[in-house]
Amino acid sequence: MQHYPFVVDERPYCVWGSGLQDRNRHFLVRIDTEYFRFAADSFARNSTDQSALRVGLGLRLTYSHALEAFLALLFAGIQAPSCVLPWLARYTLDDLRALVAKVQARKAVLNRVGLDAPDWQVISRTVHRYLVLEDKEKEERIKSGFADFWTLLASEFASDPVHWEYNSIKHGMRVTPGGAHIWAGIEHEYAVPPPPNEIQYMGGSVFGTSFSQVERLGGLKTNIRLRRHARNWNPEGLFSSIDLIGMSIHNVVSYLQILNGTPPQEVRFVWPENLENFGVPPNKRPSLNDITMDEVIDESQIKFLSSEEILATYR
């Protein structure tokens, strides 16, 4: 009987069973690191003028799913390289966000791989420790390129609107596909729009989502409001990022296989053919990303309902 103690962020667990090491190796070998690129390619092949918004939404969900999968696998490898699957079975999105925040702030993360308050450069060099090339300049550019890309991913993952959008897509399909645009002008008279020639286009995108996020009113869990949000994105930028995330997943898996006994010469690491392709080019980003607009609610004008009063409406 074997056992491995581990933590998810700082929450302790211990997994028990026979052949745990073999099961861990078997799991790592069977991870499909090409899945997200396959999914993105499948959406792209089915893109038509009529299906463009659906394809864009599919790419956005694939990107968000790939981002979560990468970060989960990465932190599982940092905190529990000998029991990756149990870690993955216990984490939540809140755990990932907490771990990402610690790395961004260079705070200590409990780990099994000898990291002391790491940033993304340190983590990339740890994952790519066994990537050794004769061309040292190229080797350095690859390791730094992934670190820079992971820094961008972490910043997006930590964003509340990105988190809300992802949950709104995957839980109940609570989004409306399509981007948002903003025009602005100064009123000459209250509530009277200015002339069309004085209204300026501020930016937007054909592709994106609109959704509503729940907020508490009066500091109570039982009284809430909906606030409208919109997010814009470019499918080409998502496609490029999904490709790089797939490579990142592949390299994390290679690193974990080595930690679990596979000889380094039997695994491979991957990187973009063109090392200038790390990150999303500026011309593939929307001119306007996040928009939040809704009515103003004066809480002093509300008589909040208690739990009992709410339940009484069902009797």
Quick structural overview:
44% of the residues lie in helices and 16% in strands. The chain has 315 residues and is of the alpha+beta class. The protein has one domain.
Write the topology of this structure.
Elements: E1 2-8, E2 11-17, H1 20-29, H2 35-45, H3 52-79, H4 84-90, H5 93-104, H6 120-127, H7 136-157, H8 160-170, E3 176-177, E4 181-184, E5 200-204, E6 208-217, E7 220-232, H9 235-259, E8 290-292, H10 307-312
Antiparallel strand pairs: 1-2, 3-6, 4-5, 6-7, 7-8
Work out the strand percent: 15-25%
Q: Strands of the biggest beta sheet: in what spatial order?
A: 3-6-7-8
Beta-strand segment tally = 8
Using the alpha-carbon principal axes, give the shape: globular
Task: Provide the structure class.
Answer: alpha+beta
The helix-strand sequence is EEHHHHHHHHEEEEEHEH
Average pLDDT taken over every residue: 93
> What's the helix count?
10
Main beta sheet: 4 strands, antiparallel
Number of domain modules: 1
Oligomeric state as shown = single chain
Over the alpha carbons, how many angstroms does the gyration radius reach?
A: 23 Å
